[in-house]
Amino acid sequence: MTALVQTQGTAISPRQLSWADNHSELRAMLEEDIRSGFRRAFDAEIKHFYPLLSALKLTCGQCCLGLRLAGKHELFVEQYLQQNIEQAIVAHQAGAHLSDQYGRFEIAELGNLVSTHRKASLLHFVIVTQALTAYGIRYLTFSATSQVRALLSLLQVPVHILADAANNIEDAADYGSYYQRQPKVCVVDLLDATQLIRATALFRRYAQDYRSETEYLLEGLRYA
Questions:
Q1: Which string of DSSP letters, residue by residue, matches 137-176?
Q2: What confidence tens digit (pLDDT) does each residue in 63-113 have?
Q3: Record's Pfam families (predicted)?
Q4: Torsion over CA: 192, 107, 152, 217 (sign)
Q5: Which stretch of DSSP H or E encloses residue 127?
Q6: What are 88-95's contacts with CB under 8 Å, separation 24+?
Q7: How many CB atoms lie within 10 A of CB 135?
Q8: DSSP 66
């Protein structure tokens, strides 16, 4: 589940990007950032957190998010679909090359997104794209409100809508007014995102300047 919300900062490591698996000392702080951000934005009381959480802290603000690999887990967004995620992607012509046997291993899910500044969100997306691509992931899926979809449109990356993220799932009441923001299940082809990063001077500079953060997140993806 993905949303742009406001959250108070918490202390993270001197490296501008940090990550936490389920056993990290940083885990509780990142979960609280996410929990309090959703509470302020949607009067939500979320209890579902992704196996890998990541935080990017800039002077202008910070962005926290969660990642999950479809090859290891069922995805949160699959609750909204009538089929598994790889079948939904193929059905919407967003990934025609995916195979039934190995397709899930090319898919990751993003959620638990809270951000205090648009730049932090965009830069974190660039880092996530670079790290996931290096890990062998081709498709990134998430549920996104209209506000988040508008932010993604700034990147000019094609976003494929797979389904409405309806409020008929278990624990939907925990998400407060989130479902009033017209969330959709979306997927992005990271090849498209990577090509845009290479073609855009600003994003290319982000990728270069934050190479160490990308490499650090890549180390953490084995826990996603």
A1: --EEEEEE-HHHHHHHHHHT--EEEEEE--S-STTGGGGT
A2: 999 999 999 999 999 999 999 999 999 888 765 666 665 689 999 999 999
A3: T_hemolysin (PF12261)
A4: negative
A5: helix 118-135
A6: 88/162, 88/163, 88/185, 88/187, 89/139, 89/141, 89/160, 89/162, 89/187, 92/160, 92/161, 92/162, 92/187, 93/160, 94/139, 94/160, 94/162, 94/187, 94/189, 95/138, 95/139, 95/187, 95/189
A7: 15
A8: E
Across all residues in the chain, what is the average pLDDT?
90
Encoded tokens for 150: 């508008």
* Each residue's pLDDT tens digit, 180-193: 999 999 999 999 99
**Structure token pair of residue 89:** 């992607």
Q: What is the dihedral of CA 193, 131, 49, 144, to 10 degrees?
A: 0
Domain annotation for the chain: domains and CATH numbers: 17-219 (3.40.630.30)
User: Which of 94, 111, 106 is CA-nearest to residue 138?
Assistant: 106
What span, in angstroms and rounded, lies between the C-alpha atoms of 212 and 16? 10
What value, to the nearest 5°, has the Cα angle with vertex 115 and ends 112 and 121? 100
Phi, psi (rounded to 5 degrees) for 177: -90, 10
Residue 158: CB partners within 8 Å, gap ≥ 6? 188, 189, 192
Which amino acid, 198?
R
Q: Is 165 exposed, middle or buried (0-12, 13-18, 19+ CB in 10 A)?
A: buried
- Cβ proximity of 96 and 173 under 8 Å: no
